[in-house]
TrEMBL record:
Its EC number is 1.1.1.169. This is 2-dehydropantoate 2-reductase. One of its GO terms (biological process) is pantothenate biosynthetic process. The lineage of its organism: Archaea, Methanobacteriati, Methanobacteriota, Stenosarchaea group, Halobacteria. Residues 3-143 form the Ketopantoate reductase N-terminal domain. It comes from Haloferax profundi.
Length: 298
């Protein structure tokens, strides 16, 4: 399968590198990283180990592929979609956090698959990516149901030994993941703690409230996500990723823009459509945006 990875940073380089063991992969990323990959190949270290030689380029347009993986940060999704419009790809799969598939679907006239990834990835140097945790990719039709395309892409991932589930209920899974990110990311970023600290801390109640609000908004959108399921998902992920510093905490600690707009911001924006108040998500988004627009970003 011909696979284009648009946004070869941490996650894109890890997933693209693993796929490169059996598929024709092209990484689209930034210069120092893609130059090193082009010259000396890519080292995958940590929980996965490989040396592969995918094509790598900074050129954003003119590519042909059976599927393009979108792995830019959520706030770069619109630019990625504009670049992909000038490519010849037959399908797109997002592995991003946040509700980004709608941006891709509104811009592109090819099928957009929804995806979530719980692999941990960290680009440690140009040409070297660390797998910080083996998780799973879940993918499927954006609106749910079975999809031959999703089955083909899922097989391509499994053929590269990537733990992959093809699911027919991506709407519910996307909203459940959004509830998890809405609760865990913002609370850990603002309190500067790893995920596990929420288990024994009153801040967990803030994460639960953000998740419950997200579940209620999901139900407005016609997605059956009970408050209990959202709350239990928070507790499960806090337990399973106890030692993790969430991606948002890592962004804050690095002085980098966060994905709050596509996470808590998306909950607020969607709730507004229904004239429904989501005070916890609104507060979390406001505090993180204040940090970003204050002294936060370096
Ligand atoms: N890193 C992880 O462990 C992980 C796990 C699950 C989900 N995610 C999600 O995956 C997405 C990517 O996360 P990440 O940690 O890999 O971020 P990252 O910043 O490491 O990678 C994104 C890369 O895309 C590049 N990029 C952006 N626009 C580009 C363009 N127009 N042309 C070429 N390159 C471009 C950036 O320079 C960057 O290198 C996020 O939504 C994140 O929440 C990450
Ligand atoms: C599940 C999660 C919150 C674990 O840290 C991850 O999606 C993240 O960090 O964004």
């Amino acid at each position: 399968m011909r696979i284009l990875v648009f946004g070869a940073g941490s996650l894109g380089t890890l997933v693209g590198g693993l796929l490169a063991s059996v598929h024709d992969v092209t990484l689209v990323g930034r210069d120092r990283h893609v130059s090193r990959v082009s010259k000396t190949g890519l080292d995958i270290v940590g929980a996965e180990s490989a040396h592969v030689s995918p094509a790598a380029t900074t050129t954003e347009t003119g590519h042909g592929a059976d599927v393009a993986l979108v792995t830019v940060k959520s706030f770069d999704t619109r630019a990625a979609a504009e670049a992909l419009e000038a490519c010849d790809v037959d399908a797109v799969l997002s592995l991003q956090n946040g509700m980004t598939e709608e941006v891709l679907e509104s811009s592109l006239d090819v099928p957009v698959l929804a995806g979530t990834a719980t692999y941990g990835a960290r680009l440690v140097a140009p040409g070297r990516v660390e797998c910080t945790g083996i998780g799973r990719v879940v993918l499927g039709a954006l609106d749910g149901g079975t999809s031959p395309l999703a089955e083909r892409v899922g097989k391509a991932f499994r053929d590269a030994d990537i733990r992959t589930l093809v699911a027919a209920d991506m709407p519910r899974r996307r909203w459940e993941k959004l509830a998890v990110n809405a609760g865990i990311n913002a609370v850990t970023a603002l309190s500067r703690v790893e995920n596990g600290r929420l288990a024994s801390h009153e801040a967990r109640e803030v994460a639960h409230r953000a998740a419950r609000e997200t579940a209620r908004v999901a139900r407005f959108e016609g997605v059956r996500l009970p408050n209990r399921v959202a709350r239990e998902a928070i507790d499960r992920v806090v337990d399973q990723t106890a030692a993790n510093r969430s991606s948002m905490l890592q962004d804050v600690e690095a002085g980098k823009r966060t994905e709050v707009d596509a996470i808590n911001g998306a909950v607020v924006d969607t709730a507004t459509k229904y004239d429904y108040e989501v005070p916890t998500n609104r507060t979390l988004a406001a505090l993180l945006r204040a940090w970003e627009r204050g002294e936060g970003l370096r």
